[in-house]
Amino acid sequence: MTEISSLNLEELKQQISELGLPAFRAKQIYEWLHKKNVDSFDKMTNIDKALRQKLSQQFSISVPEIERKLVSKIDGTQKYLFRFNDGECVESVLMRYKYGNSICVSTQVGCAMGCTFCASTKAGRVRNLTAGEILGQVYRAQTDTGERISHIVLMGIGEPLDNFENVVKFLEMVSDKDGLNIGQRNISLSTCGVVPNIYKLAELDMQITLSVSLHAPFDDMRTKMMPINKKYPIAELIKACRDYVKTTGRRISFEYSLIKGVNDSPECAKALCELLKGMLCHVNLIPINTIEQSSYRKSDRKSIEDFKKIIEDHKITATVRRKLGADINAACGQLRRESKQMGL
Ligand code: SAH
Questions:
Q1: Prediction pTM value
Q2: I want to staple 240 with a disulfide (CB 3.0 to 4.6 A). Which of 44, 88, 114, 198 is the partner?
């Protein structure tokens, strides 16, 4: 069966004409899928029943089912465990900000990158998500809450630049005027540093924000935390980032998770500033989330403040990320692991 949710309008028109149907049908179906976010052909009420039946025999729609949902009593953050047609699950988190609703979506089932502090990668990568499956997370959360989603971050389970084609297609479709029409400036893509694909992304010259998970300013330290650093060490990564800024004119966000006694010293802060010198960038400091499978602990408040001050003294802007959904363990990919272990 062809997955209809992953076809852009051109591709859908092509498929529809191959079925011998008039072109306006493609536009109608596209609207049902990508503007009204329906999860079945039966809901496409301006299409006659016989045709709906025919379509449902040929095509599948990949809006996931809600397997579990946790709602934070503190700030209304909602964490979903979504299940796709083949039974595989991923997590998405809906966060409510003053400027609107933001969703954090997954790009793969599991992850192959092996970062030592991250729960999502502990059992490796199962498969890539399709463009339609990434869209489906946004659509299901939006229909479930009845509230518009205006911002997206690709920071859930998976490495977006390890699923390049599907992710780029997702970015194009979600920002398309025939779809949800979410401005690319409201979308952030986070990568652990798949250098060749940072160059490829730069060439597309999109308006999205690139976030780079740096987490350490020294190669030996970073390699211990993030195996990808063996393949693409810091100097190469920073060179790619400088190229990205030059090509796109967009500011890069560097993510830096602070781990007590590991990467939170003043020397680390200074070395970080040295690396980022003169670059159009911003630093996000994140107190690490403790996960079951690792002995890393959060830095204390004073080290975090000192770290931030050093960065700001070097004229680089920095924020300490506010934690949302603390009572529902909103970060980390732990819900999927938990469900798998319980055999759900
Ligand atoms: N693979 C991509 C996107 C997914 S992870 C990437 O590596 O950027 C999203 C962010 O959460 C990354 O910055 C990642 O390093 C960070 N992260 C993962 N586990 C974490 C943890 N336990 N505590 C704090 N941040 C974590």
A1: 0.96
A2: 198
Locate the ligand 1 atom nearest the alpha carbon of residue 158 and give its number.
1
Out of 104, 111, 117, mutate this one to test ligand 1's pocket (max ligand atoms within 8 Å of CB): namely 117
Q: How far is CA 56 from CA 20, 27, 50, 60, in A?
A: 16, 17, 10, 7
Ligand 1: centre distance to CA 145 (Å): 26
Residues of the chain where predicted confidence (pLDDT) is lower than 50 = 344
- Ligand 1 binding residues, C-beta < 6 A: 115, 117-118, 155, 159, 190-192, 213, 255, 257, 286, 288-289, 291, 332
Active-site residue (options: 67, 89, 91, 255) = 91
- Asked whether the beta carbons of 300 and 344 are under 8 A apart, the reply is no
pLDDT confidence of residue 136: 98
Q: Tell me the CA–centroid distance for residue 9 and ligand 1, in Å.
A: 33
The confidence score (pLDDT) of residue 140 equals: 98
Active site residue 115: no
The tokens describing 48, both together, are 């006659």
- Between CA 56 and CA 125 the distance in angstroms is 30
Active site includes 111?
Answer: no
| Ligand 1 atom with minimal separation from the 117 CA | 22
What confidence score (pLDDT) does residue 344 get?
47
323 Cα: distance to centroid of ligand 1 (angstroms): 14
Residue-level pLDDT at 207: 97
